[in-house]
């Protein structure tokens, strides 16, 4: 998807489809657009028509914005995107808005348009790429709009990479494939990459290795580094992503129905890799490190068994009561690995618990952490781009649900508050730095007719990184 901007007004004779974005206070000057605007009934916000021009018909549409928050902009853009997908190129008029509003509208519409044009058909004999390929934004505030489009372009780039990784078949997207893709994409942008393999993991990361050893696929620990702050020695933000490229449940085998969707269990890793790359693409003034533990969780003669006791990188022993609670077993060692960077903040992202779907459904990610300022910043970033998240509590009393007769902690708690006890488990490994945890089990992908990765919460995390002080 290509975005560009032009100074000045969108002229009626400009070839291609035309979209006018306006409000009741800022009406379009174009006669056709004004007529469409006047035709809107009270609850209608979008209208389109085809005008006769010298060489045929020209598509024209108008969007009436009733609110200016990002949620309203995203909703309006989604309605316009249904129309835009039938056009090869659209010209968007933003002349109704002052600089800051024009930039906000451009960013929201471009991001929605870019995601609407997404297709994943590389396994199909006949690929059908999106017709919609280009959007040109017209505004007298060209500089502000151009900067906003750069942000939208980076977000779309990140979400596209995230969705491509999530949608890839698990026989293609193995741990090695995920690690090599992260390396290729990060190095392409000028970032540094370090990949540690089975020998290091087996020797240093006993909890991570306990999950990985059940598969014939080798595990990897990926470390991506970018130093964009004026002070390259300043404490970095560290992103950690769960990279289980297929989760069978291990010996605690999952039900067969819907198990194909367990290829999405690496969407936390995909989010972290993609957010990192989007931030580097934008050249954000932040020091940033991404850490991705990746492996498969498979049943075999070498797999974890319920009752096994394993030793984490931190030195805590863990009783494995359920082998399907494997994400926290690989994350805890990655979170310990992150200590060496003396981080400003650590944010982990994981499709961790089905309980999060019970609590928050499929539209809201769960967030919790040990530092309220960090959580508040993430929630503000969530609201700013309408990538919804909700804070769950992390009281010390939840530790009472994590008791083992045979080890320091078990990998699952007693019944109730499954998402929170998973976060509580991780909190034992994050005591030495500000930390937040995102459970994206409900938001990372869609099921049913729209089955596929969503690219969330890339928008939220990218917006957070844009505002890190």
TrEMBL record:
One GO BP: proteolysis
Subcellular location: Cytoplasm
EC number: 3.4.11.1, 3.4.11.10
Root EC class: hydrolase
Domain Cytosol aminopeptidase: 322-329
Active site residues according to the UniProt entry: 254, 328
GO cellular component, one term: cytoplasm
Residue intervals passing through the bilayer: none
Cofactor(s) the protein needs: Mn(2+)
GO molecular function: manganese ion binding; metalloaminopeptidase activity
Cofactor note: Binds 2 manganese ions per subunit.
Residues holding Mn(2+) 1: 247, 324, 326
Catalytic reaction annotation: Release of an N-terminal amino acid, Xaa-|-Yaa-, in which Xaa is preferably Leu, but may be other amino acids including Pro although not Arg or Lys, and Yaa may be Pro. Amino acid amides and methyl esters are also readily hydrolyzed, but rates on arylamides are exceedingly low; Release of an N-terminal amino acid, preferentially leucine, but not glutamic or aspartic acids
Pfam families: Peptidase_M17
This protein's UniProt keywords: Aminopeptidase, Cytoplasm, Hydrolase, Manganese, Metal-binding, Protease
Residues binding Mn(2+) 2, per UniProt: 242, 247, 265, 326
HAMAP family in UniProt: Cytosol_peptidase_M17
Record-stated family: Belongs to the peptidase M17 family.
Function noted in UniProt: Presumably involved in the processing and regular turnover of intracellular proteins. Catalyzes the removal of unsubstituted N-terminal amino acids from various peptides.
Protein name according to UniProt: Probable cytosol aminopeptidase
Species whose genome carries this gene: Neisseria chenwenguii
